Fold each of these.
Amino acid sequence: MKYHQIDRDLFIKNRAKFMGQMKPKSAAIFNSNDIYPISADSTMPFAQHRDIFYLSGVDQEESILLLFPDAPYEHQREILFLKETNDHIAVWEGEKLTKERALAVSGIKTVYWLQEFEKILFELMTHSDTIYINTNEHYRATVETETREARFVKWWKEKYPAHAVAKSNPILQRIRSVKESEELDLIQQACNITEKGFRRILSFVKPNVMEYEIEAEFIHEFIRNRSKGFAYTPIIGSGNNANVLHYIENNQQCKAGDLILLDVGAEYANYSSDMTRTIPVSGKFSDRQKAVYNAVLNVKNEATKMLVPGTIWKQYHIEVGKIMTSELLGLGLIDKADVQNENPDWPAYKKYFMHGTSHHMGLDTHDYGILTEPMQANMVFTVEPGIYIPAEGFGIRLEDDVVIQETGAPFNLMRNIPIEVDEIESLMHS
Ligand SMILES: [Mn+2]
């Protein structure tokens, strides 16, 4: 791990919150992700399942967490099962968590090696009536592989058909969406690393640079600041590439006079940051580019003010749509007739701004959070309006990550990342 060890009090609190929501005589089980194969003996880099990480801090494959608040003995209330390690195994497999390290990382005192799992599980099952299983109910999820978690659930259901089943996911969606101060610090660190990357590329970009050269500058800056890398596949889209919303080829040359849309964020300690900036290849915006840019910036600033406790995500999007409509009228991109005749299910502004304005952000870039429930203090949202104009050869999106406050405007975790036209231009010329 490149990141500094996280204070285990975070994971102790997270488990207490989860256990506080469980039914009597129930246990909950969470699994690591698999290491995914590529072919031959090569694999994808390991990425931990965010739920077991959130509840334990264990950032290692083949780990199982079992929570059983009503267990007959105290030492059975929180149990970790880990892949066995010792000095000999460590020579071959590298450093893995020992039982002592696992306690230091997670605060969990009872740690067994994985080979003891089935025997211990059997005993605990006799004392429990309900088992919480962890299924993925994220609103954007499309999963084609069988995860380690799903494989476990299948095995467990077959083996213990008489137990009642409950869902971990709604509990996790609620507790993970409201961040602890330790988490806000980690997300801030991810944002600070993203800022360093962005400042680095501001002095690097010039006409004829390749999009992938910009990508390389970012990753260089991220890794040297203890990030594992990009929190999500970066979008470096110059000219009309910015109008392809999921453009990730990043293989074109940036031409003088064009804009480049950069949707790039560093991860830190498995926490995401999610930033978008749009900058001029030549270091100066044209008047038209500047007018559209400031329209997007105004929508972003106005939308941010609406992220307060009690706001409902769907209603918020309707209000943002009204602000965007007025900006598009001002830019002459739509006219009054377009608005009068608009289809309420697909308003006129959607021609130029066809995606959502905000999503929860945290351990996942598109983080957990139940969108039908009111916003609360310490939720982290992105704010990311855009205007995409293929006919004019550019698209502009601006995105910051903000924390909802008990009272007043949200706190902007990206407040130090340049966004005003003048500041961007002057940094590109220095
Ligand atoms: Mn985003």
Note: Residues 181-202 form the longest helix (22 residues).
Amino acid sequence: MKVNPLALNPERYLNYNDVLRRKFSNRVQKISINAGFTCPNRDGSKGWGGCTYCNNQSFSPDYCRPTKNIRQQVEEGIGFFNKAKYENQLYLAYFQSYTNTYDSIEKLRRLYEEALAHPKVAGIIVGTRPDCVNDELLDYFAELSGRYYVMIEYGVESTNDDTLRFINRGHDYACAETAIRNTAQRGIYTGAHLILGLPGESRELILSHADTISQLPLSAIKLHQLQLIKGTQMLRQYEENPGIFKLYTVDEYVDLLIDFIERMNPSIAIERFVSQSPAALLFAPDWKLKNFEFVDKVKKELQARNTYQGARYISGRQ
Ligand code: SF4
């Protein structure tokens, strides 16, 4: 029987940062770019009002201002991290805010290639919705992948269509699956983002996302706890009907994550376990933990339970 190497790995899960470091033989840092895109789930093209949990201000770092062009943002991002300590590291330009494929292909090419023109930028990561890519764009990304690191990161959020309707995502899980398969089959690195703990999702339903997503040709996954953000439709729903929400404590969420990681395909790297919205925007849960402190808890719990990513993964189980 084939031994899962993660059973012997000190971290006990496939850490995306390690995967990148091995690929580039160097430290690699992402820098966030706000290219001034809008969102088709807000302007009526795919839907109105946006996803119920979304307040886009909650995931744009301070150094990133849409009034600056891409080159300025890249230089400021590199300056920020270079000053910190690592002069020789490489950078990936992370097109993060809103839907970063929502424009004409001519404009998209110009924006991505403006970032790639910087000699320290080794590639791009493009965050988008699965209903905002097409064959022409994916063919372009495939061509670009021959010269640079390119990852397309899709917001999947849940594999359950009832949940996706409830949070007003404007697409179903089949749409996400199709986009991921069409991207990966062109040899492009493909990522997915999931929120654990969306309203109405039981523990078993949340864990079933691990089984379903594990069947996809993904390079990496980001997992986030549900956060209630001020000014969102979801916070209003919570105030009206708190019974359909389960806001996890740190320990409960770590426990859920360990079960989730055990069911994950061991070949899909894990990039994040939590998200951190700015304190001024966050309503709950307020864990007051830095990302590295949380990751440390996950690693310790994996060790304490003597388990690892993929320990309960079954190929073909959905
Ligand atoms: S989460 Fe993304 S797709 Fe949803 S409303 Fe916000 S920017 Fe748009």
Note: Strands lie at 28-33, 90-95, 121-128, 149-157, 189-196, 220-225, 228-229, 269-272, 282-284.
